[in-house]
């Protein structure tokens, strides 16, 4: 996203308004001062730190989040306390608001949102499960798409991916291009499957399952479905996300050891394991989401320790809660992880420590001290140049 100043140069009786470096620099210093202070106090370890924004419903309600876009707009659903669920959208600049339900819908769930603000989800209409798309203030039901449907992802052009039952009642992955549904089918020996993510190329990922036993990671591209394997040929696992470069976040493992390893797959390098955090007690990991830079959000597991959540950013893996800014580690316990966008923001669920209260949180990375210093230097250079050129 690019920001620009579209305002024309204003003229007065004294001539054109000129750049005022002192005022600009002073304003910038005031704006950056809290950021610099938070950054300096937070950076006792390498890598990003995260500020915390609570996503509030405005009324007592349980907020469940699923996805966000690069603008920080978040979707999910809230419980009405009577067993009903209603899809919502939230942004850092607007209050949480419910999406208007499709005609006849009694419950709605939002699954994904793209950068145009289009939201994909599912709705209960009578005894049926319908897909819906919300755009420009209007929610449109797509019906059952021929059968009971579960929508999981929407790409930039509005294509949907998810699962629906075939004529034998087996759930199969599908893609909807806005006019028609294309079932991706199943590979031999598999009896179920789902697509959980789709990129702008129309490539989709998810999992395929046997009648009994664990699933296998599925990758669909250019009309072909394939299994993704681990570094040693492992076919047990599941794929959770795919980015615009075609990289896939997945986990792989072996049945005998019951182990799970988060990894990134691409056509050039194959499957490469994501390292565990240094000096941690965790043995296994699974991914949840990935952005276009290849940063991954996921879960950590170990024996006799509580599950936690990790982020793999710029080649470093760290436990997410350890990177919250001072005061937030003591306040919040992260209990679920949901998405990471191209700005590095992370969407999680958390529990207020010492209580039974839960909330959804948007974590925003804070620039490191040297980044803030570079901004100050750059503003100073601009101010000096402008003063030199000032008539």
Question: What key phrases describe this protein's structure?
Answer:
about 400 residues, mainly beta, four-stranded antiparallel beta sheet, 3 helices, 30 strands, about 10% helix, about 45% strand, disordered N terminus, signal, Ice-binding protein C-terminal domain-containing protein, Ice-binding_C
| Overall radius of gyration | 24 Å
Q: Outline, from the CA principal axes?
A: globular
Largest β sheet strand count, sense and barrel closure: 4 strands, antiparallel
Count of helical stretches: 3
Fraction of residues in H or I helices: 10-25%
Structure class: mainly beta
Q: What share of residues are in beta strands? A: over 45%
Number of strands: 30
**Arithmetic mean of pLDDT:** 84
Low-confidence stretches: 1-44, 369-375
Strand order of the largest sheet: 3-30-29-28
For the termini, the CA-CA separation is 34 Å
InterPro entries: HAF_rpt, Ice-binding_C
Protein name: Ice-binding protein C-terminal domain-containing protein
Domain Ice-binding protein C-terminal: 365-390
Keywords: Signal
Question: Can you describe this structure in just a few lines?
Answer:
With 391 residues, the chain is mainly β. The protein has helices spanning 21-42, 328-331, 369-389, and strands spanning 11-12, 15-16, 49-55, 63-68, 74-79, 85-91, 94-98, 105-113, 119-125, 128-135, 138-143, 150-154, 160-165, 171-176, 181-183, 192-198, 204-209, 215-221, 224-227, 236-242, 248-253, 261-266, 270-273, 284-290, 296-301, 308-313, 316-319, 332-340, 346-352, 358-366. Keywords: Signal.
